[in-house]
Batch of 3 targets.
Target 1
Amino acid sequence: MPNDADTDARDPDERDSQLVDAARRQVRGEPGESAIPLGSEHLEADTPGARTTPEADSFAGYKIIREIHRGGQGVVYQVFQKSTKRMVAIKVMREGPFAGSADKARFDREVQILGQLKHPNIVTIHDSGETAGQSYFVMDYISGQPLDVYMTSGEHTIDDTLKLFGKICDAVNAAHLRGVIHRDLKPGNIRIDDNGEPFILDFGLAKVATTDAEASLMTMTGQFVGSLPWASPEQAEGAPGKVDIRTDVYSLGVILYQMLTGKFPYEVVGAMRDVLDRIIKAEPARPSTIRRQVNDEVETIVLKCLSKERDRRYQNAGELARDVHRYVSGEAIEAKRDSLAYILRKQLHKYKLPATIAGAFVIVVVAGFATSLAFWYRAAQERDRARLAERQEAAQRRQAEEHLEVGRAVKNLLQDTVLAADPTKLRGPRVTIAEALRAAAQHIDWGAYADRPEVESMVRATMGRTLRELGQYPAAEEHLRRALALKRELYSETHEAVADVLHNLVDVLLLQGKIVEAEQLGRQALMIDRAVYGAEHQNIAAALHNLASVLRAQNRFTEAEPLFREALEMQRRIFGPEDIQVASMSNGLSVCLKELDRLGEAEPLQREALALHQKLLARDHPDVLTSQINLAHLLILKEELAEAEMLLMDTLERQRRILPVEHPGLGVTLILLGAARIKLDRPTEAEPALRECLDIRQKYLPGHWLVGNTQSVLGECLAAQRRFDEAEQLLLDGYQAMSVQPAPPRRKREAVERIVRLYDEWRRTEEVERWRSKLREMP
């Protein structure tokens, strides 16, 4: 082992070679000492060696270590600079000497732009040149992580996130002050070094705002330029004339949204046309609905950046940076300057001590005058407070007595109808819940609470809800109607207790297909809730959701959608994103969007609903199973049949454990399972599920269009088995039933399509043409 003197005496080229070899060993994870400390890098290129790399000595004075990034325009290598004995980065044109004139113009533009940008948080260019017909430039090598990796590698508070983001904005603003528009801001082009400092990279798509002629070399009208998920509406439109420094502000808004929530402001996966449409039109979800700690001020900053109209955004990154710095330092942000109350609150918070002293002085000045008034006011206030306390105490006593009476009533019902029941009169040694409730109802009908209508109304309402869960809809409806009549006699027509019963009655009527009355009562309930609770309350959200469900059942999907959205947004604002009612309302909106053929919007809502239900409820809870059923239906429509069948089999197994035999809730699962198996070309396996579904629906929903839909699907199943005579009767009966009580347009159209396929397979030419003609007339 040589000593230090020996090392110093070695040839300089030999020393450089050993340093480079040590660096390469460290990159590859090989053992050995290294004189060069290398940071961890996030490589966007493939594994080193997987791509063609220039020879180590391709650039005079530099030795290539490895490829660290390969983008659309160029390739970046980590290199060792012999003259300075340090690591730098070299960027070369991706196509090398074969690059076209437009690519060369872009590359030269990046060199010129980086050469004029001097900022501690923008990567510095040191040299440029050409070798073997290949242009290149040398810049700082930033050891660290891309912004997105850095943000997910640990916990970051809102303030810490904004301090980091403020530095990013300052750097972008340095470019904006020189008229440079980056046009490709994204987390991958922002690197955080080992000290937590950000650096803006890759100005390959940048342009100078004042050089329209040069910009035209790089962008053709209608051509998309940038990275799609972070693109602005004007970039998505392919309108280069609209691209200016406010375009970068929009991209910074998307980045800040990601930093705060870990998500994009709207869906950015799927067909490119769909993603472009969402960027142009879709309003971003409020960040506070995803991360509760995001307050109104921070949310205002984010949403101002993401305005679809350029004039409503911050006009440059400097304005954005100033508002971020103001927030971090506790000052009023510019975006909320139109709110006087907000400004006063912020100033008082910032200058708490001076404001306190000034306030104390004012109090001393007016104290003498106020004292004489205070004694009189206090006496009047004490008198009013005593009267109010008496009224509240009396009301609380009455409420407590009512609840106590209901408790006693429930206890007596259990004793009289279950514990003391004669098993032989209840058909067997095991008393079912339904039998016990029937006995309890008889007990009430005989006048058990004739002199206590408030107790009877509460007991009947409770029994109605219970019978609804058991699928005993007619019995549930009877109890709820009796409860409603009693509530209306006891209280005013617009009392909240009346609305509570209306909510449950609307649900039961809807389940029985009594749509017209359900809508009428649903509107009454919403009117009462708005009058009682004001602008926003969980009961209003529930009433909106119920009414939307009724409209959806009437195929009035465009009317139902805004009500579903209002209910969902209100519930999120009140309880945050992880609330059980948020899950149910996401589910309702998803089903509505599915019927509007907006499957791409419906699926994420449905998966959100299922994830929340699974997180907040027991695995076999009916709401969990409903979410699974609805997701399975979406997947069937999207032809993703394997996942759909798996979900439905799991759901059916769990339903059979917790629901009575022939419960109406089994119907949806059975028909969807049958439909999935038909599509999977297994009609003989589909038939038993479909026949069971038809039996249940004919028993519990006579005359409902769902019976006709089940007949139609069963007919398709038999046609697939070439049992054409049986299939024809079912298909025609199903279509007729769906016409008498109008089915959703999608379902009715599907029924006609099945008839056409039947006659086509059966070679009934005249019938095929007759039904195809009918199909052409349908919406």
Target 2
Amino acid sequence: MTVTVNGQALETGARSLFALVPDHAGKVVILNGFQAADDLPLAEGDRVTVIEKGVLPPQDILEDMMASRHSPGVFEKVKQARVGIAGLGGLGSHIAFALARTGVGHLHLVDFDTVEPSNLNRQCYRICDLGKPKAQALAEQLMEVNPYLSITADCVRVTQDNAASLFSGEPIVCEAFDAPDAKAILIDAVLSACPDHVVVAASGMAGYDSCNDICTRRVTSRLYLCGDGKTAARPGCGLMAPRVSVCAGHQANMVLRLILGEPSP
């Protein structure tokens, strides 16, 4: 029968996983998206990925592993996608990590700010990142997750004049700003000047109310809004890691659904 091993078709007489991979000790063996600890039967057309533990595999094997861990057909589509992220704080940094781990082929990271101590309570930065431009620091971290990503990092403030040109090459743009006026500027500029673009925005994720109140809704045909829509940061109700990261997860998942052409919520 024919199975696929690390992306290559292979004719084999083996009828079980460990008969196919007899030297499986010390390796990660994935069968049809499932990391197998026990010997399992093989069938025609099965997909097997074998990688050494603790070792970065070549790009083709890493991508085959990611493809095998995701649903069929997902990785091939996300690899071709281009996504812009405007603002790299609590929302944007978590969105970027989720999309990088999903395998989105090109990420455009935009933020004018640098990493400071007050960012560490909810953003994906470390002590060693303090003082660095957020775009640079985040790009460096993402390349440690997947060194084969294509990343553009711009340390620039997004304005009404430059928003459309900045994100002209990314048909999906995540709005991840704190300030309402900055959110409005980005959404208006991109949707007005880029008729084929979609914006995934956020509003309402402060404090520590139930995360179940955070949801995703379609506002217009090209605008989606994630959050509870009401809980803004204010004295006594700050931005905290759990709800911010949940909202970022909603945005990243909506991006994935748009890439895959799934029905809108």
Target 3
Amino acid sequence: MKKISTIKAITAGLTVLLFWTTVKAGDPSRAGQSGASELLINPWASSSGFANANTSCVQGIEAQFLNVAGTAFTKQTEVILGNTEYLGGSGINIAVAGLCQHVGDAGAIGLSIASMSFGSIPITTYDNPEGGVGNFTPSYINIGLSYARAFSDNIYGGINFKLVSESISNVDALGVAVDAGIQYVADVAGGKKNLHFGISLKNVGPQMKYSGDGLAFETNNPNDVATGSTNTMTVEQRSQGYELPSLVNIGAAYDFHILKDSNGTSMHRITVAANFTSNSFIQDEEEIGVEYGFRSFLSIRVGYDYEKGIFGGLSTDPTNGGRLTVFTGACAGFTLQLPFGKGKMSSFGISYAYRATNPFTGCNTIGIRMNL
């Protein structure tokens, strides 16, 4: 009864938050009115190649980005290191590290750190608009701490707390956000848990605001202008707060298991997944993906991320029906995983994903995974 009450409480909470977020969703005219857009970038290879369509079936530490409930499927210890060349040619890179540990009878704790780097950028000022006075290096860091558990054989839920940091040498902003999610799996066709449903709410939190010495400047004291005095004063400007890019994911997936060996293990698996993303500040998205798996050794996936106007030319005007994103929708990737250790209970894997863009030369993501 206690488990049932907990499940009902989580479901009710997500329903309320879902309604609150959806009321403001999918309005392209609000683009640019939110900040911390790095929270919308998937730094993980497997789900990036799936076009983020696997909200309902993602598992392990990668689930912390799409649907934190999926971290509850971690059986022992999982470690992932990854790097993304974001918008090839732009000089932007995203490094990520994640650890997920099974705890208790049915729980899992996850920790991830993502760092976005932009290289060195010339400093320009009012007096030096062409630079020549040095460089600065922006730093974006997101830290996530999550807990998820299985409430039954079919229902999984979790919550993720995130620390968001954006800074340069003399200006910074610090914020917090919360994600929550639920996954449901059903036994269909021979007792396999091959029907998946999932819903997640992401990036809910208070406004962020920049502060620091970089918002201050020196000017003449207006009370001394009449007397010809050269006294100066320091004036600090106030920064406008900005909202976080909250969204809701709703997805479903189905696994087709083909052929079985003498142990009853499927030799081939085909997973078809679909997801709807309701964004608060940009256009809504519909994602679809297909993944082929050969035992647990090889997975190959393709996906497409659609939004209104994606087939048109790149545009900055949401009223003319053009494409409001550099992404053109197509995604693909693969995972190669090999078992090792006593009883082959551990595994080592390499994943790669590519997302097409125009302009730039796409996004390349690579990850190394160890299950211990």
